[in-house]
């Protein structure tokens, strides 16, 4: 470990001291960096060493230490010059659905193997400008299509809590990375629950902002009306510390919402007095693991004791969320993935007879089974004779689901629900595609409505795997949601528990 200069002193940093930083909060790391107790280079090297030591998780797809250390040195220069912000020098890892200049951008697909983007995605650029240091690119389901991170062309990611279990998808690399202490925070994307489910399966806090708040520019598109960038971290406090630097209006994104910047940490001390919590009781019944239901009841009891009021609500249309989601998402996927044809960029077949044969073979070789399945579904529901019967009808029901969600927010501040019916499942347990799709039962309704959501740990199952709970809020209520999550985390320690061996 290299020494560091602090004023006229040189302070050696011990290995034990660095290990103590592994699961430190973003706020604590920021304080230590600003106080020159640790340098950005030292911190980056520490996490790079951990990434190398835990390659068996398969969380990272591209790690380039020279690029990471170059960013860390720039951060140290900013700190030394007194030009640092609160995030300067904080390490972060990015889901490989965001394009990056200095790391390969593949969407975990052979179709984009080795692709180097000429620019950074807006989310990546904004966090880089805030001074954060990129540790590399994270594994995910191919083109973000999946619920267990079993669909990556580069192998599945293992859950640090149990190597036989999925880490959730599609942001499984992000969840495994943070849960194992390979980075303090990571970006993810949520189309139908791909931040909230991985957070629940690995004992993390994940935030999906309101659709349109983070820019989609430079995000490799799956379903354009649903894709939303977000964060996975250990706590709501960490998410709040970083979220403000990630979101904001982007003229390069036609779906970007023009709203003033805000401090997402402002509600962390609000408490629960007077907060009204809505609970859709029909979601808490048949099919929900009893231990998951009991953990959520404890969350509600704690909130009541803190001054909140719990109100029963009904969301009957939300039961149609899964079929609506897979019609809309697959239709948009078939359109978005049509650009990968072997002509302009991406994989091109080595041998072909004509351009049509080239496109067929390139797509057959480049796409994995799940993208092919969703392209076929999407092409079918958009085809002549079925567009009205499936796609338009799904869009009408989507509007009804959104309206049904907005009505309860006239009398409640937040809706509390399960994230999934159970805990992380074993690899291969959802081999049937329909079973895998149904695992999104509790997350897709909020995605269809464009609402923000937070998943946070609330217990441990008897099988040794974490249990999560979901908070759903009205549009642009991220600060309140993070404050409500922080209130729970201020009196519990589930978010401070880490898997053995890491």
Note down, in words, how this protein is organized:
With 502 residues, the chain is an alpha+beta fold. It has 16 helices and 13 strands. The chain has helices at residues 15-20, 26-34, 40-53, 65-81, 122-129, 172-179, 196-202, 236-246, 290-305, 321-336, 355-366, 369-382, 387-406, 433-438, 444-449, 478-489; strands at residues 4-6, 9-11, 60-62, 91-95, 133-138, 185-190, 205-208, 228-233, 276-280, 309-313, 414-418, 453-460, 466-472. The strands form three sheets. It has an eight-stranded mixed beta sheet, with helices on both faces. Helix 5 (122-129) links the parallel strand 4 and strand 5. Helix 3 (40-53) runs antiparallel to helix 4 (65-81), helix 8 runs antiparallel to helix 16 and helix 10 packs across helix 13 (387-406). The protein is globular, with a radius of gyration of 22 Å. The protein starts with a strand and ends in a 13-residue tail after the last helix. 55% of the residues are buried. Mean pLDDT is 95; it is low at 1-11.
Distance between the first and last residues' Cα:
20 Å
Helix content: 25-40%
Number of alpha- plus pi-helical segments: 16
- Output the structural class: alpha+beta
What letter string, H or E per element, gives the SSE order? Answer: EEHHHEHEHEHEHEEHEHEHHHHEHHEEH
Reported for the largest beta sheet, the result is: 8 strands, mixed
Based on CA atoms alone, the radius of gyration comes out at: 22 Å
Strand content: 5-15%
Major sheet strand order:
6-8-7-12-13-11-9-10
């Amino acid at each position: 470990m290299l020494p560091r200069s602090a004023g006229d002193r040189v302070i050696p940093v011990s290995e034990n001291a660095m290990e103590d930083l592994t699961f430190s909060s973003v706020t604590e790391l920021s304080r230590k960096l600003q106080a020159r107790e640790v340098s950005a280079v030292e911190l980056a090297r520490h996490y790079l060493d951990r990434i190398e030591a835990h390659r068996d998780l398969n969380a990272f797809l591209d790690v380039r230490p020279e690029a990471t250390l170059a960013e860390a040195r720039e951060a140290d220069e900013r700190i030394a010059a007194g030009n640092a912000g609160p995030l300067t020098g904080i390490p972060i890892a990015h889901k490989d659905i965001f394009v990056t200049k200095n790391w390969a951008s593949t969407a975990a697909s052979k179709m984009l193997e080795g692709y180097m983007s000429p620019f950074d995605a807006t989310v990546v650029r904004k966090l880089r400008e805030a001074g954060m240091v990129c540790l590399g690119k994270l594994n995910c389901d191919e083109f973000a299509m999946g619920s267990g991170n079993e669909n990556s062309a580069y192998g599945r990611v293992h859950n640090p809590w149990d190597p036989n279990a999925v880490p959730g998808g599609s942001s499984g690399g992000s969840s495994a990375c943070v849960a194992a202490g390979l980075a303090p925070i990571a970006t993810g994307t949520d189309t139908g629950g791909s931040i909230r489910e991985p957070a629940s399966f690995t004992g993390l806090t994940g935030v999906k902002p309101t659709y349109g708040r983070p820019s989609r520019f430079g995000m490799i598109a799956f379903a354009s009306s649903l894709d939303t960038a977000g964060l996975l971290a250990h706590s709501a406090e960490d998410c709040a510390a970083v979220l403000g630097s990630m979101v904001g209006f982007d003229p390069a994104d036609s779906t970007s919402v023009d709203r003033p910047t805000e401090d997402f940490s402002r509600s962390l001390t609000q408490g629960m007095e007077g907060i009204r919590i809505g609970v859709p009781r029909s979601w808490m019944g048949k099919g929900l693991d009893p231990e998951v239901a009991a953990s959520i009841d404890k969350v509600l009891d704690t909130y009541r004791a803190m001054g909140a009021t719990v109100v029963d609500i009904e969301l009957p249309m939300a039961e149609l969320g899964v079929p609506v989601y897979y019609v809309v998402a697959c239709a948009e996927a078939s359109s978005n993935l049509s650009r990968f044809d072997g002509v302009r960029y991406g994989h091109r077949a080595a041998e072909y007879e004509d351009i049509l044969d080239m496109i067929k073979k390139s797509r057959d070789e480049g796409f994995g089974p799940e993208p092919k399945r969703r392209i076929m579904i999407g092409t079918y529901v958009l085809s002549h004779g079925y567009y009205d019967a499936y796609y338009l009808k799904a869009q009408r029901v989507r509007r009804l689901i959104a309206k049904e969600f907005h009505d309860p927010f006239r009398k409640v501040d937040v809706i509390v629900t399960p994230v999934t019916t159970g805990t992380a499942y074993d690899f291969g347990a959802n081999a049937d595609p329909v079973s895998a799709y149904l695992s999104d039962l509790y997350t897709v309704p909020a995605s269809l409505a464009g609402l923000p959501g937070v998943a946070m740990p609330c217990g441990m199952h008897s099988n040794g795997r974490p249990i999560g709970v979901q908070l759903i809020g009205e549009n642009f209520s991220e600060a309140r949601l993070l404050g409500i999550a922080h209130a729970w985390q201020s009196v519990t320690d589930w978010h401070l528990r880490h898997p053995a061996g890491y």
